[in-house]
Design brief:
The protein has eight helices and five strands, in the order βαβααβααβααβα. The chain is an alpha/beta fold. Strands 2-3-1-4-5 form a five-stranded parallel sheet, sandwiched between helices. Bound molecules: thymidine-5'-diphosphate. The site of thymidine-5'-diphosphate has 15 residues, from helix 4.
Length: about 210
């Protein structure tokens, strides 16, 4: 595999899509072919699964939720992401397996290693070259969402404690694998965050 696989992680309202778009523009200016994608919902099947996972009314058991995200991921990686990486492209992905470990593991209190193993099975072991964590106090993330949203999905609607567990889950993952992660304070100005990300990505492009 010759491409570069970069994922963005963080709580809701942490600014992942803003950073991803700016990074994609910079990479394209440098002559790279970039695939911008996301989970859940990066494929046609994923769009249907996303609607179920995020907007279906009523309870979904935590293991069922984890399996639905894993199904979306398996199809997305097999049909879109791996082929792009094999063509040598840069894949910029909003959320990946670390979202499952943080939300379904730390958030829903499933065993983090089991959730990770499920995703690794789903993707035949694909790990990103770099994962950017936009770390933010969930209360600040919530305030940003409130300014731009009228409807919340099933995860966003969870209690503050859930989002604090997610945040701590992410920080623990980053501490376990410091070479793969770039942890940034998402309350910093957008331009400052972008230049830290470009700095790190430029080392991976050589
Ligand atoms: P996202 O697409 O980032 O939401 P939005 O487009 O509304 O900003 O993600 C949707 C939600 O799904 C988000 O709250 C995080 C959650 N999620 C998980 O719980 N597990 C996962 O594996 C993934 C990929 C997302």
């Amino acid at each position: 595999m010759t491409g570069l696989f970069i994922t963005l992680e963080g709580g809701d309202g942490s600014g992942k899509s803003t950073q991803s778009q700016a990074l994609a523009a910079w990479l394209r200016d440098a002559g790279r072919t970039v695939l911008e994608t996301r989970e859940p919902g990066g494929t046609d099947l994923g769009v249907e699964l996303r609607e179920i996972i995020l907007h279906r009314r009523g309870y979904i058991a935590p293991r069922a939720e984890a399996l639905l995200y894993a199904a979306d991921r398996a199809h997305h990686i097999a049909t879109l992401v791996r082929p792009a990486l094999e063509r040598g492209e840069v894949v910029l992905q909003d959320r990946y397996l670390d979202s499952s470990v943080a939300y379904q593991g730390a958030g829903r209190v499933l065993a983090p290693t089991e959730v990770r193993d499920l995703s690794l099975w789903a993707t035949e072991g694909l790990l990103p070259h770099l994962t950017v964590l936009l770390d933010l106090d969930p209360e600040l993330g919530r305030a940003r969402l409130d300014a731009s949203r009228t409807r919340y999905d099933r995860l966003e609607a969870e209690q503050a404690e859930f989002h604090e567990r997610v945040r701590q889950g992410y920080l623990a993952l980053a501490a376990d694998e410091p070479d793969r992660w770039l942890v940034l304070d998402a309350s910093l100005p957008v331009d400052e965050l972008q230049s830290s990300i470009r700095d790190r990505v430029s080392h991976l492009l050589d």
